[in-house]
Amino acid sequence: xxxxxDRRSKVQSSISPTVVxxxxxxxxxxxLMSLGAGIAWIYVGSHIWEALAFYAxxxxxxxxxxxxxxxxxxxxxxxxxxxxxxxxxxxxxxWTGVFIVxxxxxxxxxxxxxxxxxxxAGWFLSGLIGIATVRTVAHSIIGDWAxxxxxxQNVVLVGGGQTxxxxxxxxxxxxxxxxxxxxxxxxxxxxxAPETIQGVKKLGSFDxxxxxxxxxxxxxxxVALPMTAESRMLELLRKLWVLPVDIRLSALDSRLRFKSxxxxxxxxxxxxxxxxxxxxxxxxxxKTVSDRIIAGAMLIASLPIFIGVAIAIKLDSKGPVFFKxxxxxxxxxxxxxxxxxxxxxxxxxxxxxxxxxxxDDRVTGVGRFLxxxxxxxxxxxxxxxxxxxxxxxxxxxxxxxxxxxxxxxxVVDGYFARHRVKPGITGWAQINGWRGxxxxxxxxxxxTEYDLFYIDNWxxxxxxxxxxxxxxxxxxxxxxx
Length: 481
Fold this sequence. Notes:
The chain is α/β, with parallel strands linked by helices. It has helices spanning 17-44, 52-72, 78-81, 84-108, 117-147, 162-173, 206-215, 230-240, 281-301, 303-316, 365-373, 380-386, 408-411, 428-431, 441-456, 460-476; strands spanning 153-158, 179-185, 196-197, 200-204, 220-223, 246-250, 263-266, 269-275, 322-328, 334-340, 390-392, 402-403, 406-407, 424-426. Strand 12 (402-403) and strand 13 (406-407) form a beta hairpin.
């Protein structure tokens, strides 16, 4: 049976500190620029044209200098932003220092006489108020995230012997606050891997780790196995690479020494990166924002098509206009995918236990046209706006979908690695002709290969290229029925 979707059970994902810092930099810079330009326009009026170039230099240059100085003083660190009065005091002092330097520069350049004293005083004071306001709001939002645990990365230790114990000690000695060690997983008996290691509980065996990582939205797996356990480590990584998590190998006990750029660090503890999340930090933001913008624009543009298709479906056969189906989404979570109904109402197959084939008598007259043209997929724009799908990504498959009478996950080793990103309306596999029936092992294997290539090589330009190629692929109508 297909499990039901429980939205309340979904664990909220972590907030990227990189995005928090970058967003605050941008907000403060734009706020200061807007205040400077606005006050200049109100109080200086037509006289601004007499020294327009220098007004522009100060209005743009001082906010940028403030952001750079604040960054140098580490005022955008999340830990600093959580100290409300401390961060406001330091930020206002930085703005004051930058403003004084700007005034001195204008005097030295003999431009001070052309600048309005009212503008200078008004911009400086409003800048202090603006900075204090932005930082107060940021402190409140970050405080809420901290209470929800969203500023910490949820981490699991893989391996609970002496190597794991030394790793926990090293992380604690580094005074790392942004990771939350949820537990330890190890196959070994309690004499070699105790039930509790330095206060961290052993939660299960390696076989239970994948399910735990998915259900608890784990961000990172830290592998703490001895370097001598090579075969055991390789077998374990074959199971874990399908997860949308960072996987790092502890280099704490390694005698091998690589170039400094080879290592990543948590605090002072060195790690070797084995696998990284496909989309993190600004990549994730860019894809999410572009998805919503493109989906929103396409949904508005296609409203006449929605109306026409709805009328055609109602005139053609009895039953609802839309068809809803549970499919695998990001991290193997079930999402509701909407389509225009293309099968007769009496033959709806919500679990896709029998995939549609060529000349399938379950398909209605209108449905056949909708499927060949892929217009039946248009309602998935709604799913994109809800945040459960992307414009581009691996196509979402029904939970019980099969190839050659076998579930996809049983046919393709690493099939579930497709779910390291959100599913898409269109994808790299689709525009290369891998769509339609999956009656052989080869067809689902090839689709998976193309999907994994897309995930490993994602970029915004790659997404736009696929979107632009999609209409041509639809016109060809290859393997669509």
